[in-house]
Protein: UPF0216 protein A3L11_03245
Organism: Thermococcus siculi
Amino acid sequence: MPTAEDILNREMARVNMHLPAIRPTLSRLMGEDEPKVRLRDGSYHHFKRSELEYLASLLDEGEAERLKVPIVLEISTVYRGYFRVRGRVEVKVIDKILGTYDILEEKSEELYPRYLLPKVRKALPTTTTYAFIAE
């Protein structure tokens, strides 16, 4: 008989079927005629070229090769009221969108108040996605 943890893990996997199987870099997507990514459920998610260009405008030289798209906004059971972003370049992008970027501070992970999600999603509707995490 499956344990409660097994059931929860299966449910979380089902809820996250909208996530990409592999997250390509921004530079790779910019080079494609029709930028898209295959999702875990087998369907495809298409990116707006104007949004990819906006992302590129926020970055310094060479960072487009390191930015994985879509940027994952993690909703966790541990950090109630917050969402988490991981990755140095990914955090930099979100900080710039929110107007909190500090050139002297490089962070590889950051927690943001959940009420800021609409602002992020409005600026980057096709290049961000939610992931639901049970920790």
